Amino acid sequence: MSEVLTLATEVLVIGGGLAGAWAAVAAAREGADVVLVDKGHCGTSGVTATAGPGHWWVPPDRRETAVADRLQRSLGLGDPDWMGRILDLTWTSLPGLADHYAFSTDDRGEIQHRALRGPEYMRAMRAYAVAAGARILDHHPALQLLRHGDGSIAGASGIALRGERPWTIRAGAVVLAAGGTAFASRLLGSATNTGDGLLMGAEAGADLSGMEFTNYYTPALAGTNMARSMAYSFARWFDADDRELDIPNGPDVTPHLARALLKGPLFCRLDRVPDDIRAVMPQVQPNFVLPFARLGIDAYGERFEVVLHAEGTVRGIGGLRVDDQDCQTAVPGLYVAGDNASRELVTGAISGGGAVNSSWALSSGQWAGAAAARRARSTGARATDLAITTGRAGLIPRRDVRPVDTAGAVQAVREELNAYDKNIFRQGEALEASLARLDGIWKELADHGRAEGRAGLRLREAAALVAAGRWSKAAALARRESRGMHRREDAPGLDPRLSCRQRAQGLDRVFTRFEPAPAPDPLRAEVA
Amino acid sequence: MIEVVIEDRCSGCGDCVEACPSDVLALGEGGKAVIAAQADCQTCLLCELYCPADALFVWPETERVAGVTAQQALASGQLGAFRRDHGWGEHAANRTNQHWRMGAIFERARLQAIELAAAKAARTEEGSST
């Protein structure tokens, strides 16, 4: 093992996707020294880089209506103040990217800020962060957080993939922006999103929220990962005998497609996509047309097989719980942003899709980054104070070191968290069985797992996937009702007593509890 | 999955090695990009965007190695197609980014679904009244 790379900085940002890049920009603007580490490459890492995020981009005079509508659809779990905050910040932030992103103009010559194409957006965000003064370390995955004796966060350690060289970065504050997890599905762009930030945060003492909302799925051409779903909003659906299925497109299409897939192969025709849209598609979503072109399939002329890819917490909702207005977690000095955080405050029980989630990443990133900078500037990096490691599973086994089946653990997560019958159509007994299986795997990894270098990273990724899977199953089991995307076949319909957010925590033993339901606001009630 | 590096085209700049989020590529002994960890490739296609020489070829299937050769990749006419559609690099001059149309396209789909539902309801009514 080569020499440890050691650095001290005021703010450390873990993860260089959309939220992490915005966090680095905001922290550097506050005048802080900022280091951003990414498992891959800031600019291509994360689910934004392969996508085309819209934003929740609403002019001031229409925001009240937008919030009221979203709040109603959040089914009791959203918060109108947070919704208003991300609308404001999205509106004022995106134009600032103009030095790095060539915003398009529409047919009337008006600049279009709402939707940015992923690869160009993330290339711009990297340039924005560098221009603001942040230092970026690519291919430097973090493995664990460090904390001070007083419980506050002291930095992180990880491994530089080139040369497999360990690193330690001491920091006055840390922003976790390591993304959500699609539970090792084949969702486009999600391969490195193994929930590492959820595990690291929980080991350091943070708790989670909304982990039952992990069952959003997206269609893709079978055999590919191409989960760009826009064209499918025009689709006609067919079974193996080429009988057209009565499946109307819209926000509730997923359970219908999943039921069809449980019976056999599912096929699609895109012949209802209008000609003018077909013509422009390569310049709207270049990656959508690519698999068809290379495989020699006429996307709009012939039928083709489709599957659904699990989106886990990515277009699901759960993550580390935000504990204050600055996106600090329950752990002092540990901030969280983007999909690493629970998005219930702004999405409630339904998916934030592209738009609300992107606005959340942009906003939570900036709040977390700026607050981390303010904290670190007052405390300094405290680089000479004693720091304690917090990582356990895969790093400090509880019993004797033995070879563990890392690939088998990942496969088990895939089976338990992606399968349509287990994750879309949930019911108590199956959830209990999944949880028991994942508990067993966790025990094996935590008791005996230990590896160095890249193998060590893979082991930590597997542990993070299993941990996230356990929180998801435990939360889904405890929420004995159906609300938003969480669908219990054995408890259909809303239970008014559960109109509140649910927290999850624990590693060796997982537990959850519901927050007290908020008291009805007398003013709002009067208006209603 | 990334299938092949066209050696004659690769300049050895290393941009793809830096850009790959899954650390699949490396610079080989000959100074050209090599596929070092094919199984880790997530088929994100971004290496193709970051290769100014259009020397990389990704096959859309994620579950298996297709075994595409350099000759087949060259013959496909697809080398550099993704970069061109994006208007990346030198293509910026003649390919505009039309991504902003997404909102309007989704709206067209929503209206189409409403129309189809209305037509279906009308048919059902007709059926029940006859």
Verbal overview:
The complex is a heterodimer of chains A (528) and B (130). Chain A is globular. In chain A, strands 1, 2, 5, 6, 7, 8, 15 and 16 form an eight-stranded mixed β-sheet that branches. Chain A has a four-stranded antiparallel β-sheet with strand order 14-9-17-18, covered by helices on one side. In chain A, strands 10-13-12-11 form a four-stranded antiparallel β-sheet, covered by helices on one side. Chain A folds into three domains: 284 residues, FAD/NAD(P)-binding domain, CATH 3.50.50; 85 residues, Flavocytochrome C3, Chain A, domain 1 (Alpha-Beta Complex), CATH 3.90.700; 105 residues, Up-down Bundle (Methane Monooxygenase Hydroxylase, Chain G, domain 1), CATH 1.20.58.100. Chain A is built from 15 helices and 18 strands. In chain A, α3 crosses α10 and α7 crosses α8. By secondary structure, chain A is an alpha+beta fold. Chain A starts with a strand and ends with a helix. The C terminus of chain A is likely disordered. Helices cover 38% and strands 10% of the residues of chain B. Chain B has 130 residues and is an alpha+beta fold. The chains are: A alpha+beta (528), B alpha+beta (130). Chains A and B meet through α7 and α8 of A and α4 and α5 of B.
